[in-house]
Amino acid sequence: MKTEVKLKLGVNIDHVATLRQARLDIDPDPVQAAQVARQSGADIIVCHLRRDRRHMQDADIVKLCRLKGETHVEISDDAKIIAAVLKARPTSVCLVPERPGEVSTEGGLDLVRNGKSLAKTIAKLKKAGVEVSLFVAPEAPAVRAARNIGADIVELDTSDYAKTHSKPKQKLELERLELAAYMAWEMGIVVHAGHGLDYHNVAPVARIPHMSALNIGFSIVARSVFVGLKTAVSEMRRAID
């Protein structure tokens, strides 16, 4: 059963910039992609400013944050990245782990090892008027730790759910996500989820109670190669409604 509040769709447009950076050209423009995504059902524009700048560039973040609507920027706990994002002033940020050479984000933050540093960063971002999300494993200790260090939002890592094709294992992973979402909601934390979600596996996650937003990128951009971005976003909007 879904909550009464409409589930938000966050569309991550990083891989539009990935294609642009393949030729170091001006097209395709992620700002135009953001505008098309909004017109097609996206509630939040999501992007990741990585230390290696493999896709999004600092100027992209500034332009995206000037657009009307919510902009949600994923970042590592890195002083230079944080300074760049504060200049752009997004609606919210999500602190994520980042390892050199990784293909994509690998699991949730280690809130035990990095809790003190993250708490300082969260306080700095919130002081600047930016909401802060933490990308965490769907486990009680991670959700509790996120609350204790000041997070406004937790984004539950759905990669374990997305990687399994066994129905019994999928059921277990959905239960993990549901329990973590319920715990976060009880603590007064907004709940997002994402990582590896696509058109085939998203519906059960969208039905989890107390879920506020799903952040999805690669599958939408990949689908857009064949049907166009407007259709790809619209199809995902229908899949989660």
In brief:
The protein is of the alpha/beta class and about 240 residues long. The protein has helices spanning about 15-20, 30-40, 60-65, 80-90, 115-125, 140-150, 160-165, 165-185, 200-205, 220-225, 230-240, and strands spanning about 10, 45-50, 70-75, 90-95, 130-135, 155, 190-195, 215.
Describe this structure in words.
This protein has one domain (8-240): Alpha-Beta Barrel (TIM Barrel). The longest helix has 20 residues, at 167-186. It contains eleven helices and eight strands. Helix 3 runs parallel beside helix 4 (79-88) and helix 6 runs parallel beside helix 8 (167-186). By secondary structure, the chain is α/β, with parallel strands linked by helices. The radius of gyration is 17 Å and the shape is globular. Helix 5 (115-127) links the parallel strand 4 (92-95) and strand 5. Strands 1-2-3-4-5-6-7-8 form an eight-stranded parallel β-barrel, surrounded by eight helices. It is 46% helix and 17% strand.
